Amino acid sequence: MVLGIRGMPNVQGGIETHAEQLYPRLAALGCEVEALVRTPFVSKDLRAFGAVRLRRLWSPTWPGIEAVVHSVIGVLYAGIARPDILHVHAIGPAIVVPAARLLGLKVVVTHHGMDYEREKWGRVARWVLRVGERSGMRQAHARIAISQTIANLIRSRYGLDSHLVPNGVAAPGPCSGTQHVAGFGLEPGRYFLQVGRMVPEKRQLDLIEAYARQPRDWKLAIVGAIDGTDYSHRVAAAARSEGVVLTGFLSGDPLRQIYSHAGAFVLPSSHEGLPIVLLEALSHGLPVLASDIPANVEIGLDPSSYYPVGELGALASALTRLENAVPDDEARRMRKDRVASTYDWSRIAEQTLGVYRLVLKTSPASSAPQSLKN
After folding, report:
1. 9 and 126 part of one domain
2. DSSP string computed for 244-311
3. Range(s) of the domain holding residue 69
4. How many Å apart are CA 54 and CA 317, to the nearest integer?
5. Which terminus of the chain, N or C, has less C-beta within 10 A?
6. pLDDT per residue rounded down to tens, the chain (374 residues)
7. What is the CATH number of the domain that holds 287?
């Protein structure tokens, strides 16, 4: 049973993408999977995603309490349904892990990132997230870290081992069409691309300002839903002022086309767990430019692919360099091959199933994971 996601399929968010790719593969490996999803994000007519059962449970839409309220309802439902494993994603929902343990459930928690570092949260929300991290890490039967940076944090802060199971990326299929690209007024090979939620830590405003500082032979396209937040409105206003293309949320073939035909991908974030969008860009062979935060650096790109987070002058200079670079088909192929071999979802599903099997072999009272070789 899966707890901590908004929904699937085609729900914006890194954790949601992670779940959408992981759980159908676990079902194919023989697991019976039920995902607890939130009512605002999944139609009441959608009862399954492939072999994954979807159980819609009510949640509010208010930022800051949506995840916690849904998690409380979800853990009570899990206490009735009695799954073999309750798999909780993210440290906010992990605040209910002690309750799950009291209900006699075996719990795995995936730590996707230090969400209390996100700029959008106030003091109370940050406190709740820290409590969720502490509760989830200490009380879970097994902990999964999606990056070595997070695994190191779990070891240093809590003195506990975790299983390193990264995010993955699905190999993109052939994409020769350009109708969606043209529909946004973009020219293949001549635009920068960013994909992500409209939240302050994604730093869309940094990217727009840096883009405005350099010669604009290329366009800039930003993919992500514009919602009702003040930050989204600021991004929309800045984009209009500088001629930036805002596509809104994309999935399926439109998103695949936008990736396939970009000239370069840019990720200026100040906070990430292990960014799936960066892996997706590499799976298309794109040259990439990313901020030098630990989660991005861990992917191991060439040093020239990083710039100091928040330094707009360095970002603008790097954009100009990318714009003037000569296309390199061999480098593009090497980027595709590397990400396909390192971040394969099928292997990640097998590793996750290995964690489940280890937990099912341990006694209910044990909270210390065994070592899992990756």
Report:
1. yes
2. -EEEES--HHHHHHHHHT-SEEEE--S--SS-HHHHHHHHTT--EEEE--HHHHTT---GGGEE-TT-
3. 2-168+344-361
4. 47
5. C
6. 999 999 999 998 899 999 999 999 999 999 999 999 999 999 999 999 999 999 999 999 887 789 999 999 999 999 999 999 999 999 999 999 999 999 999 999 999 999 998 877 888 999 999 999 999 999 999 999 999 999 999 999 999 999 999 999 988 876 778 999 999 999 999 999 999 999 999 999 999 999 999 888 999 999 999 888 899 999 999 999 999 999 999 998 999 999 999 999 999 999 998 999 999 999 999 999 999 999 999 999 999 999 999 999 999 999 999 999 988 999 999 999 999 989 999 999 999 999 999 999 974 444 443 333 33
7. 3.40.50.2000
127 and 207 co-located in one domain: no
Provide the b/e sequence for 340-354 (b: ≥16 CB within 10 Å): beebbbebbbebbbe
Same domain as 206, residue 143: no
Q: Are strands 48-49 and 52-57 parallel, antiparallel or unpaired?
A: antiparallel
Cα 332 to chain center, whole Å? 23
Could you tell me if 208 and 335 lie in one domain?
Answer: yes
How far is the C-alpha of 144 from the C-alpha of 121, rounded, in Å?
Answer: 24
As for how many domains the chain has, the answer is 2
Do 132 and 235 lie in one domain? The reply is no
Is 226 a member of any domain?
A: yes
* Residue 221 counted as domain residue: yes
Angle between helices 14-28 and 345-361 (to 10 degrees): 70
Interatomic CA distance for residues 328 and 325, integer angstroms: 9
Residue appearing with tokens 């819609």: 56
Judge if 261 and 338 occupy the same domain.
yes
